[in-house]
Structure formats: C-alpha cells, structure tokens
Fold this sequence. Notes:
165 residues, 6-stranded mixed sheet, 4-stranded antiparallel sheet, 3 helices
Amino acid sequence: MMKTMSFAPKPLCTSIKVVSAIFTALMLGIPIYTLFYDKPVPAAPVIQLLFPLIWLLGIASLIRSYELTKGLLVVKRPFWSNHFRLGHNALAFQKKPTGLTIRTFGNGGAFSGSGYFWNKEIGTFRAFVTDPREGVWIKTPEKTLLVTPDDPAEFMKSFEDLKEN
Length: 165
C-alpha cells in the first residue's frame, strides 16, 4: 500500500480574504440588484446567470489540501485535482523571492492565489497558495511550484521521504 501524506493549506491571508469578500459581493450583489432595480435592465438575464457562474469558478479555485505520495504532489480542489510528478531531482525549500512577481495567467486572489507567475530571481512558476508570504518551493527539472501547507517543515520532511529515488 502506497503511503500518502495530506497537508491542510495555511489559512487565507488578509489580502485573499478581502479580495474574496469583494469578489463575492460583486458577483452575487449585482445580479440581486438587477432583480430589484426600478427600470428594466436589458442585460439582466445574462448578468443574473453569468455573474454567479463566475463566482462558482472562484470557489472552484479553493485549495482543500496538498497530498504527497511516492513521486507525486496532488493539489486538491473542490471539483478537481492538479497532479505533479516529482522525480528524484526534485527539491523542496523555503525562500522569499526578491523583486517584483508578475501574474502571467491565473486567479487574481479570489479564494486562493493560483496560476502562472514570473519573477526575475525564480523564473516562471505555478502557484497554489493561500498565504503567499510563507510558501514551500518545489523545483523539478521541468517546473517550479509554490504551495502553502499549514506545516511547511513537516511537508518538506515528507517531501524528502516520498520523492522518487
């Protein structure tokens, strides 16, 4: 039987909580407002359908857990999981990158910080974070990932125990 270690994500940082609250207020508040507005809103049916669907996409980006098994990292989401193969050359470390980090594609902070990013020091990486200030970097020859388990030290210890030899 394959050993699997599961790690909860760190609690959401203040900025992600604020963005999530504003996102929720807009995506649910505007459609409700169109229901009670005095004058007919021509786009009301589209707004009433589309905005809650966009909100559900934000909810779908929540990070439920990180799982490590032999040679594999799984980022669990509400409706799907992201799987990343960890070869024997994979490294896990903690480091605060210097300089500006640019989001090239991804979620802007509604319920998580997820997507593709670039930093001069790190290069291109994928992030699956709930608190970007304290993450664990995972570097393989093919990719660089940033995750935020609640217990980074235990995560890194398990990572070393479970990566492919």
